[in-house]
Each structure stands twice: as C-alpha cells, then as structure tokens.
Write a structure and sequence with these properties.
Helix content is about 80%, strand content about 0%. By secondary structure, it is mainly alpha-helical. This is Nucleoside recognition domain-containing protein.
Length: about 425
C-alpha cells in the first residue's frame, strides 16, 4: 500500500505538468494564444520561491511548539496526562494485559498527535506496534488491538493544528488559529466514528462507565457547539469561536511553562533544546513542498484547474445545495492518500482565494480533519511486517469520510 501511495504521487506529479502542457497546446491550436504557456512559466518560478518561503515561515512555529513540548516532557506533564487518561482508553484494548507497556506508549502517541507533534508521534506509534506485535498470536495478521490503534491514529484527532496554523500565518491570515475549534470538532467526529465502528466489529462492550464518560465528553462538545450556533447570531458566533480558540491556545502555552517552573525545570533551556528539532523538520519538507506546489501552480496557471472545477460544479449542481465546498474537493480526495499532496492543494487554495476566505478556511479544516490513512497503515504495519490488514483500511477510510463531511459542515457553521 505504501508503494501504491508512492506510485500515485509519481503519476500525480507527472500528470500536473503533462496535462497542463497538453491543455496549453490545445489552447494554442484552437485560439492561437500563448497566454497559458506564459502563465505556466511564471507560475513555475514564483511557486518554487513560494515553497521555500513557506518552509521558512513554518520553521518558526514548529520550533516554538516542539520547544514547548520538550518542557512538557522534562516536567513530566505529558506522562501525568497519559496516566490520567489511561483508565478511559484501556477498555478499547481489552486484549492488552493490565499495566502492559504498550498502553503507556499508546497514550504517549495519542498525546503527541493531540498536540500536533507529528515527529514525536510516529516513533511512539512504531514502538506501540512493536509492543503489540509481541502479543500478537499471528505475526502476519493485524491483531484487534493494532486495528483499533491504527483506526484512531488515522482519524487524526488534533487539539492544536500546529502546521495548519503555520501555513495560514504564512498565507496572511489575520488569525491563523480561528480554524482550531472547527478542526477539533471535525476530528472528534472522525475519531468517534473510528472507535464506534471498530468497537462494534470487535464486539467491545461500549456500555462501560468509562467509555460512556469518554463518549459523553465528545458528544457534549458537539451538542454545545450546535446549541451556541442556533442561539447566537452568525457574526457573534464566529467571533466567539475565534476568541475561544485564541484563549485556549494561550492558556495551554502558560500551562506548560507554569508546570515546568513548578517542577523546577529550566524552561528556557528545555525550550531551546526542543526548538532545535523544528529546523530539521522544516528542512525535510522543502523538497515535497517544491515538487507538489510547483505542479499544482502550473496546473492551475494552464487553466486546466478552472475547467476541472467548472465540470465538478456542473456535475454536482443537481443536488441543489450550496456549491462553494466543491473548491475543497481536490484536498478532500487527496487527504487519505497523500499528506503532502493534500497540503499542496490547501496552500494553493489559500493563495488563490485568500487564507481567511471561506475556501481558505474550508481547505484548512479539511486538511486537519483526518490523517493520511494509507501512509499511516503502510508505515505502521510495515514496521512489524504485517501483511494481512483485515478491515483496517475500510474502517479507517469510513472515519476519514466522516471527518471530511464534518469539516465541510463545521466550516459552513462557523464561517459561512
């Protein structure tokens, strides 16, 4: 499956350029205009420069959050949070023996994902798979615990969408964090669907007090959002959501710092130590940004993207619903297959329509609503040589679909 994802990107990258040039030749032959080629040439150079500038802007926000996470690690805050949450998560993994090492690593992985620490979450996830494989009676088939773990991972539950906020900041957003609440709600839907689907398949008893408490928190959050939306005027609702996201963000930052000081951690040194890894992370993504952003920019400059969007609008217009969301469809299609491809589509949409436009916010919410399922499944199962995935992919894609639909709905709710 990982090979499929790579081949998909290979053909996608080539297709952007080949289709763009073919469309340009068609325009030249039918109208005699060379404008598409001039636009494509300009887009090639401008988007290459833009990709590098985006990576530079991303460096700062990554360095900040990785520095903050290091404070949390050194103070023991992340470990304490994991221990508090463990009783509410362990019922989802009934095959794990009590106090098994895998549970602590699972919780650390979930915590890292919640806080947007992708580079920390992946090593923890791989260690989790290693621990779960030790308990797996059939070493080539995915165990029930593995499937639950990967379905939750692929649902992409995120409390702080760090990279999305960084991209929005670079794109000129007045408040990059205004999408944090709708992203949290959309990922909550995705994660809830993943847990319920897998739990029903594995016949996990859902009416356990701690699971009911866990689900109640998520459902209450969703219910409160809809109640507020119903009773508060749209403009005030959007302002309140933005304010709440900003307040939560700053309180969270202060919580890490205060906890570090309480536990006699040198918060400045810890922050610097963690922030250094932000630079390495940003540098690693530059080639991927250049490849796909240039491809998307050339494809759009040729006029082929406009033709594609026009065709989708006409095809879906029979539904009679608002069609603004169609502009985010390329990002939605790309998300389960390629994280870098979906990221390029999101950035292109923000550059074309504006970071604070409806489309700019929608693609941001879509990007943050789920994880890249095929990548997660391929890398994690590949690390322990699992060849039979059972129902992992199908259920994870179902959760992805729920998250994407929720992202569209919450974006209309908050910003339309």
């Amino acid at each position: 499956m990982f090979i499929f994802a790579l081949m998909f990107l290979n053909w996608l990258f080539a297709g952007f350029f080949l289709v763009a040039v073919a469309f340009g030749l068609f325009t030249l032959c039918t109208t005699g205009s060379t404008a598409p080629f001039e636009a494509m040439s300009a887009a090639l150079f401008s988007s290459s420069k833009n990709a590098f500038e985006i990576a530079i802007a991303l460096t700062g926000i990554l360095a900040f959050w990785l520095g903050l996470m290091r404070i949390g690690q050194n103070s023991g805050l992340l470990d304490r949070v994991a221990r508090k949450v463990a009783p509410y998560v362990s019922p989802l993994f009934p095959s794990l023996p009590p106090n098994h090492p895998a549970m602590s690593v699972i919780l650390m992985n979930f915590s890292a994902n919640l806080l947007g620490m992708d580079n920390a979450a992946t090593p923890m996830g791989l260690e989790t798979m290693k621990q779960l494989q030790k308990l797996n009676p059939n070493k080539e088939h995915a165990s029930d615990a593995m499937i639950m773990f990967l379905a939750i991972n692929a649902s992409g539950l995120t409390l702080i969408p760090t990279s999305i906020m960084a991209f929005r900041m670079q794109a000129g957003s007045a408040n990059p964090a205004d999408v944090a609440v709708p992203i949290l709600l959309a990922t909550s839907v995705s994660t809830l669907v993943a847990i319920l689907a897998v739990a029903l398949k594995q016949r996990i008893r859902l009416w356990q007090p701690r699971l009911i408490a866990l689900f109640s928190v998520v459902l209450s959050l969703l219910a409160l959002t809809f109640i507020a939306w119903h009773f508060i005027p749209a403009a005030q609702f959007s302002q309140a959501a933005t304010a709440i996201a900003s307040i939560i963000l700053m309180l969270l930052v202060c919580a890490f710092i205060v906890d570090g000081l309480r536990h006699k951690v040198n918060v400045y040194s810890s922050f610097i130590e963690g922030a250094k890894s932000g630079f390495a992370t940003a540098v690693r993504i530059i080639p991927y940004l250049v490849a796909l952003l240039v491809g998307v920019a050339v494809f759009r400059a040729s006029g082929a993207m406009d033709l594609l969007m026009e065709g989708l609008h006409k095809f879906l217009s029979f539904t009679g619903v608002n069609m603004d969301w169609v502009e985010a469809l390329p990002t939605m299609i790309m998300k389960p297959i390629s994280g870098s491809g979906a990221r390029a589509m999101m950035i292109d949409a923000m550059q074309t329509h504006g970071a604070d436009s409806f489309i700019g916010r929608l693609t941001s919410c879509v990007q943050g609503s789920t994880d890249t399922t095929l990548y997660v499944v391929s890398v994690y199962f590949g690390s322990v040589e699992i060849t039979h995935f059972r129902y992992t992919v199908g259920f994870s894609l179902l959760a992805d679909l729920a998250g994407l639909v929720a992202a569209v709905g919450f974006t209309y709710l908050f910003f339309a």
